[in-house]
Amino acid sequence: MSQTIKAAIVGTGFIGPAHLEALRRIPNVMVTGLVEVNQELAEEKARLLGIPNAYTFEDMLKVSEIDVVHICTPNFLHYAQAKAVLEAGKHVICEKPLAVKIDEAEELVSLAKSKGLVNAVHFNLRYYPVVRQMKTMRESGELGEVYAVMGSYLQDWLFLQTDYNWRLEPDKSGDSRAIADIGSHLLDITEYVTGLKITEVMADFSTVHKTRLKPLKAIETYSGKMLSMDDYEEVPINTEDHATVMLRFDNGSKGSITVSQVNAGRKNRLNIEIAGSKSNFEFNSERPNELWIGKRESANQHLMKDPALFTPEAAGLISFPGGHNEGFPDTSKQMFKEVYAAVRTGKQPDSPSFPTFADGLRELIIGERIIESNKKQAWVKI
Ligand code: SOE
């Protein structure tokens, strides 16, 4: 492989440009290709984003100099596109969810394994340095035995009945919305930090807006604030705006999460509190440079992100000295640094430090069991 690794990005909604920006901050990685639904749109977006080549998906697969493909399209396309990329012999970084059905994700996991190609799912929120700090402090015994986990992930970008996006349509997004879209990040972080496995779930969903006003022209995620009433049609909604899920873990401890896309003022707030026998950790993604450590027999601590104070593993995800805040865009950069180090070796590592297709499959399984639990209003085993 040449010294500069060449990549293509498929899709230019909210997250494709975020991948592009992160890749531009990594040495010796170059995004040389952009894919959109047709050549004309690909050319327009490539010009706007400053990417040298525009392709249709099929043409991009034939370009031998492209080593890595980032799939940033709506969920229903992930399976077929990830499969085609692997079959073309290219490494792949797929947005979450890995697929919309478990059997599709299983097929992708085994295909990626048989090809030996690097495969990753963009669970980027793991890459807040504080999240890895919590993980490594738990591993070294500073949390103690996990007693309980309490999490929430709250947003307000779907608060109004006029807020609309492809994620509201199950044929594009899948059968779950809030759980699949943001609950998946929270559940991934829960297992990642605690090292525990969720064994059973009990879920209760609510759809606050039973109908929504759909814009008559397409709009992109987070950008639905500039239309007038004549631009809408009323459509039924059958995925959850809000969900609460009780959790049981394999060490016998318990937890709960609440996710919502209709909480006014909560822009994009993941919060996790892990109660342990030695201390209590709390992380809030809207204040991502701080870790609260609760103590019973001494003063509580407030640990600010600082490579000099963090564990070596967490310090490895920090690019600036203490007091120089890093945030959401940095999570993807830090994740891609690890993924591209694997790409440089040409194959998936035996124990990857980054979230893989297997992690994507795991979140799909948990998500399906949560949907089943809500339908049955009963505990369901994972
Ligand atoms: C939209 O709800 C969304 O973009 C998610 O899809 C992302 O994964 C999360 O990072 C922010 O919100």
From TrEMBL:
Start and end residues of each Gfo/Idh/MocA-like oxidoreductase N-terminal domain: 5-121
GO terms for MF: nucleotide binding
Domain GFO/IDH/MocA-like oxidoreductase: 131-280
InterPro entries tied to this protein: Gfo/Idh/MocA-like_OxRdtase_N, Gfo/Idh/MocA_oxidoreduct, GFO_IDH_MocA-like_dom, NAD(P)-bd_dom_sf
Pfam name, any one: GFO_IDH_MocA_C3
Protein name: Predicted dehydrogenase
Gene source species: Algoriphagus ornithinivorans
